[in-house]
Design brief:
heterodimer; A: two-stranded antiparallel ribbon; 2 strands; 76% helix; B: alpha/beta; six-stranded mixed β-sheet; 41% helix; 22% strand
């Protein structure tokens, strides 16, 4: 039986996550892997918002901030289990996205970009200024969810790096699975339709405003869960998680890898998380090389790495 | 009784009267054509009826209900769909998916079901795709189903728009120059398609420049010039109307006679 495109992509992703550790020379790489998966998860949210629905957000780190600080604050202040804190963060992010999205998603293109940018900055400011609660710019510690100890009791001993590698890898797979489900579903078709032509989407009965809001909310949940995972594995969090640079990073990863493709965007997260580590050999020129790579990809592979290369390969095959 | 009834419809853009005091009705199974020179306000009229523009004056009634200025997606729920003069397709989606979006109102369901690919969501999606395949066969695009829509020819995309509009199960269909850019064979196909849709009871409002097509299939013709209705009637009446001849040929018939006299 031939695998559908969805299951092929998920299988490739699964194999990469499962087999790569065989080649890790040290435990440090589990940490890098976990960071890639967290970034990948946030970037899948951008694929849904930007790749499917054609809307831009330069403030999505705001939702990562909400998720991260829910994980940091809810266990101590509300007595919630850290895992429930992740769910709480996702629910708060969804609610905030719904409220913020209603007015700003009426805007298009760069107006929307600037409005969403404002939202992200607002969240980062609140996190910096509420010193009593968040510790301000210095950040605050995050409680451990205790899952690793649970596994140890069951006889499965993992280092911190290993645990978060597998935990984030699993979350990434689930996130990719849901996003691929969405793409082929009626809702996904409607989102991609309004991306192509809003006026035509309306004439087939698509409630454009409602669907944009749904895409914005789902992508906020992705960013929020990614923020929570980041906070829990670092055991410490600062308002930078909600900062402007983090928002830009998410969009850049998605666009570089291919914003229309889940696998492509994850690949973008891989590249942009790994490159800075690899490029340290260039020392002072690291940022310059990184910038040059991004410019060259966009010039020669405008749809992003994966979709553009796939198209080139298909073109040669025909 | 008429399905669509338009009364005194008008709109102005920056002081220019684009459409003024136009009225018309369309009954189920009827093909009503709007003709007129370029810039006569035909597409503007379409945009007002289909909710893309908010009319400055007048009323649009659908099945007796006042739907003036109603949002297009709400009009779609009431059975109004349309195609576009300057193609509005979803270029990055496959031809099949383009047509399947027409089933949106019947295939949509809970967002969570779609995210989790629950059996209900998969069934809705599969039904829409099957329906889309049938419609593509009807417009002769079944073999292009899996291609990216952006790769298709202009004439093929015109038919794809018709298939998408048909998928909404419309009671009233607005066709904006469906035969523009089509060759003779394609035009004939579209001719048959439109006649077939009317026979199945769909009310059709048509804007078209191909006069042979218009005269052949219309039940009723409305002539616009400079945004105003200058004539209407059945094809035979309209084609003999002096104002129509003047607006269309830009000169009275006498010129032709004079040329003959000279020759």
């Amino acid at each position: 039986m031939r695998l559908s495109a969805k299951w092929t992509q998920l299988l490739i992703l699964f194999l990469l996550i499962a087999l790569l550790p065989l080649f890790f020379p040290s435990g440090y790489y589990f940490r890098v892997g976990a960071l890639i998966f967290v970034n990948g998860l946030a970037v899948i949210g951008i694929v849904i918002l930007t790749g499917y629905a054609g809307q831009i957000s330069l403030g999505h780190a705001g939702f990562a901030g909400i998720g991260a600080y829910a994980s940091a604050l809810a266990p101590g202040h509300l007595g919630l289990h850290p895992l429930l804190a992740v769910v709480l963060g996702a629910l708060v992010s969804a609610a905030v996205a719904w409220l913020v999205g209603r007015p700003i998603l009426r805007l298009k293109g760069y107006y929307l970009a600037v409005a969403s940018l404002g939202f992200g900055i607002l969240v980062a400011m609140v996190l910096s200024n509420e010193r009593a609660l968040t510790g301000g710019p210095d950040g605050m510690p995050v409680p451990d969810p205790g899952l690793r100890d649970l596994l140890k009791d069951l006889g499965l001993k993992l280092t911190g790096g290993e645990f978060w590698y597998w935990c984030c890898g699993l979350c990434l797979l689930i996130g990719a699975w849901a996003a691929l489900n969405l793409q082929a579903s009626p809702t996904g078709r409607a989102l991609r339709a309004l991306h192509g032509s809003e006026v035509a989407a309306r004439t087939v009965g698509i409630d454009v405003a409602r669907l944009k809001l749904q895409a914005f909310t789902i992508s906020a949940v992705y960013a929020s869960v990614a923020g929570s995972l980041l906070a829990m594995q670092n055991r410490f969090i600062t308002p930078d998680v909600a900062g402007f640079m983090h928002s830009i990073e998410m969009v850049t990863m998605a666009v570089l890898g291919g914003v229309g493709s889940v696998i492509g965007a994850i690949f973008g997260a891989v590249i942009l998380t790994l490159l800075p580590q690899v490029l340290t050999v260039f020392a002072d020129y690291e940022q310059m090389v990184l910038g040059a790579v991004m410019i060259l990809v966009m010039i020669f592979l405008p749809e992003g790495l994966i979709p553009s290369l796939a198209r080139k390969l298909r073109g040669r095959g025909e | 009784m008429s399905l669509l009834s338009v009364e005194g419809l008008g709109i102005a853009f920056g002081g220019v009267r684009a459409v003024h005091d136009v009225g018309l009705t369309v009954a189920p199974g009827e093909i009503v054509s709007i003709i007129g020179p370029n810039g006569a306000g035909k597409t503007t009229l379409f945009n007002m009826i289909s909710g893309v523009y908010l009319p400055g004056a007048g009323r649009v009634r659908l099945d007796g209900e006042d739907v003036t200025g109603m949002a297009p997606h709400l009009l779609a729920r009431r059975g109004l769909s349309r195609t576009f003069q300057n193609l509005q397709i979803f270029p990055a989606m496959s031809v099949l998916e383009n047509a399947a979006t027409g089933f949106h109102l019947r295939e949509r369901g809970a967002l969570l079901a779609d995210l989790l690919a629950l059996p209900g969501a998969r069934r809705r999606s599969a039904e829409a795709l099957a329906g889309a395949r049938d419609l593509l066969a009807r417009v002769g695009l079944d073999r292009a189903a899996d291609r990216e829509a952006g790769e298709l020819s202009y004439g093929a995309l015109k038919r794809l728009e018709i298939a998408r509009a048909l998928a909404t199960a419309p009671r009233l269909l607005l066709l904006d120059e469906p035969a523009a850019g089509c060759n003779a064979v394609e035009t004939e196909e579209i001719d048959r398609l439109i006649a077939g849709m009317a026979q199945s009871g769909i009310a059709i409002l048509l804007v078209e420049h191909d006069m042979k097509l218009v005269m052949r299939i219309s039940t009723h013709i409305v002539v616009l010039d400079h945004g105003e209705k200058i004539a209407e009637g059945d094809p035979a009446t309209v084609s003999r109307h002096p104002d129509v001849i003047a607006a269309y040929l830009g000169a009275p018939v006498a010129v032709e006679g004079a040329a003959h006299a000279d020759g």
